[in-house]
Q: What sequence folds into this?
């Protein structure tokens, strides 16, 4: 379960957006900007609908298909996301972000070999994209190709020294390799760079949990929940930490609430939840 803290990252559009005086609903760029606003407000369904309307008006727009693909990807509609990224590439073969995000889709589907091919295609077009380098490093780590994983994560950090995700993932990798000091240094750096990202606190909490410092782990998961009160992963991991502190009622409460928020986590949590219930009955 711990290796799930390694994270590939989708590339958002790097286009520069300008303010528009027009607010007409039939203005394509206004619709696109409203879709962008919805996406940034975590309204992914709303973003998807607005991007679809934009595509109806601008059917040859690479950025329209790419942006809608991002919304689908976040909503775990992987086939739709892949199709939109593919359409993006058909319109603009140099749209490296679309190759990278097709790699993310493959990664989520467990097709790591195909993911690597897509990431390398993206890097052929833009060899200095730190997000793709990070994702490629994570994918190599998942294949236990540790030297390659460090190579790409290090390069991502060299190119963008303030890219928190690369520190987060490199810290996890250091931990897998037994270097706890470097692991925590990288995670501390990730938190420093991006203190509003619940994910970095979750990852640091996972490391504390693995070294059996459960109290500190719970503090980290609580920090994540302060930032995102509906973060299912934080609830589930916090519940697991309570399990190892023999606080079975709290463990069950947190894990069940996390599963209520995101039932897809059941395959990762069921074993711990069953153990907590069994031990509570024996008390």
A:
């Amino acid at each position: 379960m711990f290796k799930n803290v390694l994270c590939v990252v989708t590339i958002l559009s790097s286009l520069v957006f300008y303010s528009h005086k027009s607010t007409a609903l039939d203005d394509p760029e206004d619709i696109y900007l409203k879709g962008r606003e919805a996406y940034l407000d975590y309204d992914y369904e709303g973003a998807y609908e607005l991007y679809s309307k934009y595509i109806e008006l601008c059917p040859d727009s690479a950025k329209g298909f790419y942006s809608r693909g991002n919304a689908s990807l976040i909503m775990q509609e992987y086939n739709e996301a892949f199709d939109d990224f593919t359409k993006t590439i058909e319109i603009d073969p140099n749209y490296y972000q679309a190759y990278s995000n097709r790699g993310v889709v493959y990664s989520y589907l467990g097709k790591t070999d195909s993911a690597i091919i897509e990431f390398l295609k993206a890097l052929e077009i833009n060899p200095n994209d730190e997000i793709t380098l990070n994702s490629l490093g994570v994918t190599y780590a998942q294949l236990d190709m540790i030297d390659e994983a460090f190579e790409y994560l290090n390069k991502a950090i060299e190119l963008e020294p303030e890219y928190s995700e690369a520190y987060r993932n490199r810290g996890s990798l250091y931990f897998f390799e037994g270097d706890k000091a470097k692991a925590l240094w990288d995670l501390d750096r990730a938190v420093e760079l991006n203190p509003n990202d619940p994910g970095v606190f979750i990852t640091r909490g996972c490391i504390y949990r693995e070294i059996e410092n459960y109290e500190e782990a719970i503090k980290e998961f609580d920090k994540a929940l302060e930032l995102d009160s509906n973060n299912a992963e934080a609830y589930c991991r916090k519940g697991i930490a309570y399990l190892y502190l023999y606080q079975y009622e709290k463990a069950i409460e947190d894990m069940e609430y996390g599963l209520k928020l995101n039932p897809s986590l059941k395959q990762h949590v069921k074993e711990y939840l069953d153990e907590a219930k069994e031990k509570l009955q024996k008390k």
